[in-house]
Amino acid sequence: MPNNQAAIQAPRVTVDINDDVAIVTLNRGRKYNALDMDMFYALDNTATELANNKAIRAVIVRGDGKVFCAGLDVKSIIKNPLNPGKLLKREEGELANLAQKVGYLWRQIPVPVIAVTHGVCFGGGLQIALGADFRYSTADCEFSVMEIKWGLIPDMSGMVTMRELTRIDIAKELTMTGRKFSGIEAEKYGLVTHVCDDPMAAAMTFIDSLKTRSPDAIVAAKSLLNDSWVASEQAVLVLETQTQRKVMGKWNQIVAVTRNFIKKSLPYRKRSI
């Protein structure tokens, strides 16, 4: 559920939509985009609004200034003794608490979400990036599962996403040591999709390729893969059929077929699922 507390504060997150692509910027560059309560509320609101926008084809999440996100703004959070409880409280009927939402809600946005990282991507910032479908990074971006430094464990949905991307021994090592590692190492571990000289340009090129495909099929593919990756074989077989029925025979699927035979085919329509 969106939280209105962010609306009365200086904007922590900006959203620019151009050519059906939403660019979400963590807008606290002077504080290295560290996560204070206002940033948590703003990210919750932003992800919820984008999840309901059927006009967009993709989302990019980036950080303003020198870094992607330095993680939790610990000093700001502990100023109010009520803040930790607010972060960990799960509202009735919701899957995740406020802290978890800033990483997990990107998975619930139907369209592809790409995190573009540079500078540093620590702690909560890493968990935000892991919640995206893809991560494009500079080679020299520094990553860390930083929570151990504060005597904590990663609890912003990172355990849901990390298990799909890397081996358990790597996850344990990074979580227990908190050591910093480069974009090149992150790619080796499976935590980064591609290392690029210009990750923003590379992400836009990738999105351009996605735009040549049916928006319904893209959304269905994300949903199916997210739901089936760690499910039982029987559950996956059922999910495949259920998901295929949502797209088969619809306008965008017909257009996708005709594009294999006719150069100037009809355009795709706004996604129907």
From TrEMBL:
Pfam families: ECH_1. It comes from the Bacteria. InterPro entries: ClpP/crotonase-like_dom_sf, Ech1-like, Enoyl-CoA_hydra/iso, Enoyl-CoA_hydra_C. The keyword Isomerase applies. Keywords: Fatty acid metabolism, Isomerase, Lipid metabolism. GO terms for molecular function: isomerase activity. Gene3D superfamilies: 2-enoyl-CoA Hydratase, Chain A, domain 1, Lyase 2-enoyl-coa Hydratase, Chain A, domain 2. GO terms for biological process: fatty acid beta-oxidation. Belongs to the enoyl-CoA hydratase/isomerase family. This is Enoyl-CoA hydratase. The lineage of its organism: Bacteria, Pseudomonadati, Pseudomonadota, Gammaproteobacteria, Alteromonadales.
